[in-house]
């Protein structure tokens, strides 16, 4: 008995010593918790219970205390626990061995508040928490005031619960992409989304945030942007999600949500976007869009607008309901894909009243509503490696919204032969007229019809269809003689075939001159020849030494030529007919008038043409130039041209044209002018506003004048650009704006500004008694209020009507992680203001936008 008691006492002492040894063991040495069930089974065997921890638990701290009865381990100061892929660093950590729970807490201040967060790192992701508990058995975790970084964003939630390694649920959470706040350079974000609940789903390559009701805050101030929900993908790959709309008001159709929709990637090369515009007065619009891209091959998109515009109140006279549609296709081929075969497409087909009734406000903002015509084109170009030819096939469709007509060209093919020399050079260096003869030729096939939109692809359209074939051959050569003169010689031959000819006659019954088209194949050929001589003359005017102006150089380029073309309106060619008009006068016309291949010229041309080109430059002294001399252009070009037709029966002298171009002040001030002068006297009958051109030569009256002036102004023109880093020794930051500070601590920065001034004056008289004048001045510029605040705008003032034309004023703000833009158009048919907020982060660049637009009618009070 004594031996048994002694044996039991010895076993108890061994256990106590062993437990004491464990309690004092170094924390750097990993331990493995194992529980042995010391019971005897019926088979007299020992059964080992399952281990509570599935991996090695490693922990350390400045102060470690173990409570054996409660199976607790307490770590204080610089505590760290490593378990599987998780590492916890905190001021305090407790380990409950019985319940399999880790609890961590940040460092407390004197008031018992956490001021230094605990750090949790799991699977390469870092989290900052006030307190954190983790169940090693269920893998569930709960964190309070946790900071979770995900891709470019940060989530700060009052409470975060982790259900497993891929699902997190957060309550009362703030989400932001402000890099200053994420890097702790600022105590609060410049913007954030405040959400009641956020669910984060993690995948192997991407994560997704499913956000409940959320409101956007800017500088902790709430904005009107409230989202019922949002899906935010965090992945380098494309992800499906909801697209947030803009909202605002248009007086004619009511309040709106514009651009609400869904985005869905389709495979590797396609994606689908479906947007909707909804208005409170019943208008709606559906906008599907498919984009496709294949690298180094092609890119393009299909888009459509299908909707209904409702204005006024049903039952009243102002009520209207209009259906609209638009179908568009864009396709661009990469130039490297196939240099010998190129295809492109630009297709826009709309209902006639689409732009006047659209509820897609984007077309109002870009002024598409002012369009009077819209064009669509398909083009296919084929080039050859060995053949010197290029074949281009096109199909085009044009809509005229003013008269409702439509023009279709299908198909249209052009075969162009590359320029070649007619004769081979004997010496390898071309010289003389024969060796320099070049030939340019091509063939053009066109099928064209102009009809009403409602007749498209009907029998009426096919009946109006015209087919034409045209060939052009141009020959030219040149040679130098007497060292300073260049002689040029050329000839042009045009051949044309068409399937329709014109017959004109006067119908006395209905009192109308009738144009009747006949289905008949007919053709014509024309030719003309030209010969010209050109040279260059120089003159120099030198000034005395020491004068500011050193010299003026004048270069004159005179040219004289002769053009001959027979009268293809003569009866011998058979291209013209005669008919008696409503006044009984015999009137000639061409059977090819109103055709797609044009008409041959009438009247013989034997004209002597002249052209005088001038270039005037001046040399002045300049200290800024290293040579001490600076060139100034007085006239870059000043050209005078006209002709005298020896074969003309009346008015052999043509209108004289003068064109000038110049630039001053280091090519900043640009001036372009044009002038037309009639050498014959114009007489006006009493009471008539239209004059008659007489044969009295020598009057030289101005019939037209145009001048365009533009000058870009900037802060750099009024002083040298400062290097603020050298002028001021102190540099600092206010909020997120960088400034330089002087000795009195006043902030300085480069306040850049630009102002483009352009003016236009037009004078047109022709044969009218009263001239038509138009004069306007335009301003377009920007001003930096601060390094990140910018104001910009443009306006035009009509000096004849004394009214402001199109005017736009805009403000923009670069606010670290997002941008703010405001644009206002106070005048014109559509008065618009536009407010836009866009997130810079790639993950939210398309998802989070806030727009507020308002559109009023032309005569509505603003």
Automatic annotation (TrEMBL):
UniProt-listed InterPro entries: LptD (IPR050218), LptD_2 (IPR045659)
Q: Which residues form the LPS-assembly protein LptD central domain?
A: 210-680
The protein here is known as: LPS assembly protein LptD
Q: Which organism is it from?
A: Chryseobacterium luquanense
Q: Top-down, what is the taxonomic lineage of the species of origin?
A: Bacteria, Pseudomonadati, Bacteroidota, Flavobacteriia, Flavobacteriales
